[in-house]
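Hey,
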Amino acid sequence: MYSVQNLGEKVPRTGQRENMDLKGIDTITRGYSTDFLSSGRKAIETPWLHYFGIYFKFGFFSFCTPFYFDQNKNNRRYQLSSFPVQKVICVFVQALSLLVLVTNFRIIRSQDLQKNPMLYIELASLALNSFYMVGVIYAFWFKMDLFAQLFAELQSTVMYRFASGEMWKMKLLSTVICTVSILQALISFLYGVEEKEWELDRFLNIMENRGKHMFFIGKGTQLGSTESTIIIGLYGMAKFYGQLMKNTADIVGLLSVLFFRHLLNDLLQAMKDEAFTPQMLQTSYDALKAILNKLNNAVGFFIFFFFLGPVPYYAINIVTMLDASDALLLISNCVYLLNYFTTIILAARVNNSAQDIKDWLTATDRFTQISPPKLDLILHDISEYEIALSGYGFFSASSGLVGTIVSLILTYAILVVQFKAEVTEPGGMEEAAGNISSLLESNVSTILLNNTIST
């Protein structure tokens, strides 16, 4: 047996949970330092760490994040690592990706919006995308300490006793998810340039014209072959990188849901063991809350945009998917949509698991083993503290939120259909704008009301 107090001893990697002789676990104090970079004590390695460990290595070597977590061989602690050269390259490509967004604004603004009113929707989507990209860059550069605190929590929590699952499975899952994001970014990049006529000369001509726009070169300016190749290469790299970075940021939401679902399921599974007593529940629940607080602090921004950001996009996507130019684009959009809804549904199921903990406590009169004051404290925690991922404090991932999102997407999809029909009629532009305004006000009020009720 391993001592609960000695957090430096090795944890079995076989995925087999050992017999839980956790006497005295309710007296453990979590007085460790969150500054694990300077701690000399050996740490624990759990399967949960690999959800984010592989992710940050992927982000680092793809220049999406300026850091990654490297494990110290001596004390087995994960520490923030970075390289000056990588940071310089990261700044360069991120600046180019932001320049592409500015270029897209200029291209849309240079067109006659009255003749093509659908550009208003594209302009709004681009504005949301730009805000998201700036927020992602800020989070990765200036909030990396929040991810460090999350890693510290996972290496010091008493919850490690309940960890199940083999390390290689977690690594493989994260690797597959990151690989799919690259393929998705490549498809989005190609179809973002041209969707209909796949001729190489036409494709390169579009890339060159947009590259000229990006570097403020006149459209009629003739470029040599070398200059043209450089312009096309820089624009293509920036365009692809911008999409890759957006996909990489979206992965945070997916991995957070999978991670916390795994963590909570491990606790629920441990509670089925006869060795797990009600006296252990308070400490375990406190540790669970501590991890959730660190997780929400680190990924709250990403959760907010992962859940609510795609709502307008998917409304348009559902309508336009039927007119997809080929099967590859249709399949790509379907996979992306399926991934989104699967993730938010899993997040809602995690939120419902708190009731399972309460049911376990009340089953077979386990609550009689706890003194009334402590029982009141436990029940109060379970009832008042919501076990859910939070979108920067604006909402909690729950079944109610899923219902709101689905209704919003369907509402916006109907709005897009009406908008397309109305703008073709005389005076349709003004009527469509009025419909948009009234519908937006109605949906914003619905979201605020639902979250007020849930709070």
